Inverse folding.
């Protein structure tokens, strides 16, 4: 079978050599093909090349791309322009950034149709209206008059779909179209995309790093790694019987994880306790309302919620970076001062925070050795050989060779950096570690390894931990208990292992139901429930 | 005269997630990364630095001596750049004048950058009201065009060399402060500074060890640009007769004292003016090359 | 719209505060001088009694804050005092010179702004092309050339070698268009040289900054031509920064005019200020400095308000 889209031996080179090499695949008419890979796999580069477009500094060095018989590599820029937006449409990752902030939405949605002279303005607007209705946008008659900042992220993503579909394209490229959305918004967007693609019978290329999402959308899957194809085939085959070892590690990392049974939680005393804590930034609205929490010594509490739920604010309040507006934080029974400046050094030592992104959390000017030595010198006053020995011990704890002490973070991989980020907190020998989304900036496989490592460290060191995340399965893997945050409040507390059985609050149910599963057909079977129906 | 443009270009420093590249860069490595225009700039800047150091010793004639047969002589083998309005050797006077131009400008640009960066660090790590007060004050200083501020100060304090140095330094401190503050405030919000704060580090440690190392490179680039502005301002003041005072002379004074030669098209007036332009253009080319074309691109860079 | 009104009023308020601060700075610096106005006026041969009498008459014995308040009050009433050099009211002197400076600045702005915007946008549209590189290198060098070199070379070329134009600007009472042009061409060209380079660079930067945004890539992926991407998508968003760039560059006209007015012997406010420095005529100097600063504040304020009105987020 010869495909309707054919890519043969594609090589795209950037300033430092090939980004994509020897990539070949085909897409049949009406088929949805997924390009899956982690950051740096070249998936977006390939997606853009399907429109004959490469980003600045890159060029297509060899290979062929044919879409409906047209050879894009041999085409002139003017011919490609006529194709883009008309025959081949693109849906970008972040709709908030992909819409022009100073033009209204209708102008932007009908622009491809008008620029390609496919219809006049009135019929283009009529068509846009039909699409708005089909995509389930609220008040379709008037939404076009708004500006991008006046509608929500999920709505913008659907408006971008309308913009892509207005010219009746033959091929739609969806580049991580739901990655910027919260899970409860994502599920709606996925449903809409799937329905529209099916109904219109267009071919689609779906780019994603998320195997569970791809499992719902794709007929065929191409697995990419470092710019090369590792494996391709029918979705069922790739998901259920992956042949390539890399694909297997991806599938394993995406599988629902078994909760690790905790080590030793004595119900006895709470090492950390929050009583009636509320918080706000400056004079802004309250982002945390009346939070009560207790973390038993040696326990691990998962804090789960979507962006804006107040979960990261919690970490800032506990660490003293943001003073609580009211309520108190107690460490081993003693009330802590609200701000860092008023806490004793010993109190500061006992609570350590690990930030989400190691790239911004580790000072690029310092060596790894200096990063790890500082808290040791600060809290324990060690100097010279004793200090060096302790740094070696810490590197050993995170399974890195002692030679790393002389290196800077710029030279290390994402996983190594995140472990150093963690080690810096452990260097203080803390009682409580606050982990704020520590796996969300990592690639799937690396994140899975990081979670396993955290669970192991907990058993080894008996750490007490608050683990903040938007990812339910991550929380289930390392935590004993889960607190679900919604709009600044705790709406549910339950044991991590049987959250699904114990869930009572509708938001928890929605969250559980919205979290994509690797199982094909999950999307169709998931119950429909809109976030708007939730009442606190 | 290009301050506003440069200020805009550097105002919003693009601090990549990992911060700007740091660590010692060998001169050789820097040279290899420079584009052709940057290398030319580097060579011309180096030439002027050497001239400023060695000028009086390599000058063919004593500076004050009337050595030529006539005033405003055209170039000849004896006087490569002709003679001036009194019949002195122009080349000798330029070689000596360069010392004032380069020396004063280096010293005052260094002082301006040092004060600007120090105050910026202070503003970034201090209480909100200190930052507010400093920034309002600097805003007010910036809204006086640098030439106007310099004129007011010269009128008030006179133009002796130390006071001239102070005037130039004070004039360019607000610009240096504004850029360094934008950098420092940006870095102050980085997670690694938050982490240091949560660890219980003092303000001094945070400013010195967490923020300063990451802003040193852009501040040095800004120092280079500011050096160029100071050269232009100093020459302008001297050209107006309000800068370096006789019997001393910088390159701007040479242009002024020879204005009567303009009608004759004498090199005595053109040569010093061209010399200033080569220095300032070279500085711009060098800094542009070092910052990876950010300046030439005029943007905030990637 | 109410939000916009509040924003605009806030900007005007903060501009007024900055202006007030500037007046304090200018007054402080110019009051630090070792001598004082009375002895300056009477010269070195004056008797101490005469100086003391004049000091009392001029109110120089009052403490500095009182003198500042007095001066500020005069400034607000349009009476910044009496010039020490020629005993005329400063207001009269300024009134005779200010229109001429505004005319010079206006001519330069009218000439330079369209040219610079065209060059800047052209460079942005054709970025990384040979034209763009050449323009970038040229403007980078042009901003670093001292005004007196440009003026000298122009005079050498047009007045000395070609004898087309006068080397100084004489403004006759009722000039014909030709003599008007002949008189103004060289100073306007000299000022334009620096301003165009600077404005074109900032315009290019503002447009390219927008072209780096994801929405600009999206516009290209919609199949729009590069020109349409720049004109329809990037320019509306770059409008704020561009207006700001224009304002900042034009504010340079105020300072840059100091050299140009002196070289061409042009009777504007800048050469008046240079005279005031030379004769240490503090009341005149203070007034000139405040005018320059007010000019800068007005330009920046206009740019700010334009940016607010251009932004749909702020328009509400």
């Amino acid at each position: 079978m010869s495909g309707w889209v054919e890519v043969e031996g594609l090589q795209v080179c950037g300033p430092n050599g090939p980004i994509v090499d020897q990539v070949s695949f085909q897409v049949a008419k009406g088929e949805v093909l997924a390009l899956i890979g982690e950051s740096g796999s070249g998936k977006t580069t390939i997606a853009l090349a399907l429109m004959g477009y490469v980003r600045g500094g890159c060029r297509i060095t060899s290979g062929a791309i044919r879409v409906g018989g047209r050879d894009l590599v041999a085409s002139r820029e003017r011919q490609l322009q006529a194709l883009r937006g008309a025959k081949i449409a693109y849906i970008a990752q972040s709709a908030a950034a992909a819409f022009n902030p100073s033009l209204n939405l209708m102008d932007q949605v009908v622009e491809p149709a008008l620029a390609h002279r496919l219809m006049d303005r009135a019929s283009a607007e009529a068509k846009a209206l039909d699409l708005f209705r089909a995509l389930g946008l609220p008040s379709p008659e008037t939404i076009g008059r708004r500006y991008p900042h006046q509608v929500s992220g999920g709505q913008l993503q659907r408006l971008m779909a309308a913009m892509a579909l207005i010219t009746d394209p033959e091929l739609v490229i969806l580049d991580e179209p739901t990655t910027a959305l919260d899970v409860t918004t994502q599920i709606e967007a996925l449903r809409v995309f799937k329905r529209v693609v099916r109904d219109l019978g267009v071919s689609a290329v779906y780019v994603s790093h998320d195997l569970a999402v791809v499992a719902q959308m794709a007929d065929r899957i191409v697995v990419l790694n470092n710019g090369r194809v590792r494996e391709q085939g029918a979705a069922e085959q790739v998901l259920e019987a992956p042949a390539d070892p890399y694909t297997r590690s991806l599938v394993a990392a995406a599988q629902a994880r078994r909760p690790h049974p905790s080590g030793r939680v004595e119900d006895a005393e709470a090492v950390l306790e929050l009583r009636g804590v509320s918080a706000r930034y400056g004079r802004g609205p309250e982002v945390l309302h009346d939070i009560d929490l207790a973390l038993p010594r040696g326990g691990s509490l998962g804090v789960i919620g979507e962006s804006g739920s107040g979960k990261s604010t919690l970490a800032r309040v506990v660490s003293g970076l943001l003073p609580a507006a009211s309520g108190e934080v107690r460490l081993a029974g003693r009330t802590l001062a609200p701000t860092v400046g008023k806490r004793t050094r010993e109190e500061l030592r006992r609570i350590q925070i690990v930030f989400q992104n190691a790239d911004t959390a580790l000072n690029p000017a310092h060596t790894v050795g200096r990063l790890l030595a500082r808290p040791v010198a600060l809290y324990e006053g060690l100097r010279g050989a004793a200090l060096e020995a302790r740094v070696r011990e810490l590197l050993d704890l995170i399974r890195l060779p002692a030679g790393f002490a002389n290196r800077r973070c710029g030279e290390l991989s994402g996983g190594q950096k995140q472990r150093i980020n963690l080690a810096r907190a452990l260097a203080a020998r803390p009682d409580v570690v606050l982990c704020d989304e520590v796996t969300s900036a990592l690639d799937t496989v690396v994140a899975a390894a990081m979670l396993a490592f955290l669970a192991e460290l907990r058993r080894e060191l008996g750490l007490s931990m608050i683990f903040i995340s938007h990812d339910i399965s991550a929380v289930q893997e390392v935590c004993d208990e889960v607190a679900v945050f919604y709009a600044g409040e705790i709406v549910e507390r339950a044991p991590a292992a049987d959250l699904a059985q114990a869930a009572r609050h509708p938001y928890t149910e929605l969250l559980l139901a919205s979290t994509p599963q690797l199982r094909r057909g999950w999307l169709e079977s998931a119950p429909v429930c809109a976030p708007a129906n939730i009442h606190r | 005269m290009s301050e506003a443009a440069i200020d805009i270009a550097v105002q919003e420093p693009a601090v990549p997630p990992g911060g700007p590249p740091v660590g010692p860069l060998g001169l050789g490595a820097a040279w290899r990364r420079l584009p052709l225009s940057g290398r030319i700039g580097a060579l011309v800047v180096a030439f002027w630095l050497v001239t400023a150091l060695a000028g009086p010793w390599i000058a063919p004639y004593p500076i004050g001596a009337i050595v030529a047969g006539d005033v405003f002589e055209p170039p000849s083998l004896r006087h490569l750049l002709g003679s001036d309005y009194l019949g002195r050797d122009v080349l000798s006077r330029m070689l000596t004048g360069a010392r004032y131009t380069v020396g004063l400008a280096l010293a005052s640009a260094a002082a301006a950058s040092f004060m600007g960066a120090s105050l910026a660090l202070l503003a970034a790590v201090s209480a909100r009201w200190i930052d507010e007060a400093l920034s309002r004050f600097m805003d007010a200083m910036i809204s006086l065009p640098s030439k106007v501020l310099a004129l007011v100060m010269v009128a008030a304090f006179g133009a002796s060399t130390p006071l001239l140095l102070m005037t130039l330094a004070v004039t360019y401190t607000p610009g240096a402060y504004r850029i360094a503050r934008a950098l420092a405030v940006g870095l102050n919000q980085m997670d690694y500074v938050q982490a240091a704060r949560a660890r219980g580090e003092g303000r001094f440690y945070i400013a010195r060890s967490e923020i300063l190392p990451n802003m040193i490179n852009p501040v040095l680039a800004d120092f280079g640009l500011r050096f160029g502005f100071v050269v232009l301002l100093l020459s302008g003041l001297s050209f107006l007769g309000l800068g370096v005072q006789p019997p001393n002379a910088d390159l701007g004074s040479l242009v002024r004292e020879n204005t009567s030669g303009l009608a004759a098209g004498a090199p005595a007036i053109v040569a010093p003016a061209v010399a200033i332009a080569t220095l300032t253009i070279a500085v711009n080319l060098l800094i542009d090359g070092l910052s990876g074309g950010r300046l030439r691109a005029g943007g905030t860079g990637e | 719209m109410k939000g916009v009104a509040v924003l605009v009023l806030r900007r005007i308020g903060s501009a007024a505060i900055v202006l007030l601060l500037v007046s304090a700075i200018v007054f402080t610096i110019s009051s630090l001088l070792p001598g004082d106005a009375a002895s300056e006026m009477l010269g070195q041969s004056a008797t101490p009694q005469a100086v003391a009498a004049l000091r009392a008459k001029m109110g120089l014995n009052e403490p500095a804050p009182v003198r500042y308040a007095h001066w500020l009050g005069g400034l607000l009433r349009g009476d910044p005092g009496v010039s020490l050099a020629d005993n005329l009211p400063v207001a009269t002197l300024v009134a005779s010179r200010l229109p001429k400076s505004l005319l010079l600045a206006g001519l330069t702005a009218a000439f330079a702004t369209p040219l610079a915007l065209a060059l800047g946008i052209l460079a942005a549209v054709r970025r990384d092309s040979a034209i763009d590189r050449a323009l970038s290198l040229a403007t980078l060098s042009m901003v670093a050339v001292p005004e007196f070199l440009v003026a000298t070379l122009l005079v050498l070329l047009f007045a000395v070698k070609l004898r087309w134009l006068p080397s100084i600007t004489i403004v006759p009472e009722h000039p014909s268009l030709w003599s008007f042009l002949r008189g103004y061409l060289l100073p306007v060209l000299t000022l334009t040289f620096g301003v165009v380079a600077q404005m074109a660079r900032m315009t290019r930067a503002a447009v390219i900054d927008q072209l780096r945004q994801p929405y600009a890539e999206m516009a290209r992926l919609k199949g729009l031509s590069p020109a349409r991407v720049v004109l329809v998508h990037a320019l509306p968003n770059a409008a704020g920064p561009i207006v700001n760039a224009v304002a900042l560059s034009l504010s340079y006209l105020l300072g840059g005019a100091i050299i140009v007015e002196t070289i061409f012997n042009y009777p504007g406010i800048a050469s008046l200020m240079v005279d005031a420095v030379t004769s240490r005529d503090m009341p005149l100097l203070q007034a000139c400095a405040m005018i320059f600063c007010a000019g800068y504040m007005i330009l920046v304020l206009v740019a700010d308000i334009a940016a607010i009105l251009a932004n749909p987020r702020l328009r509400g």
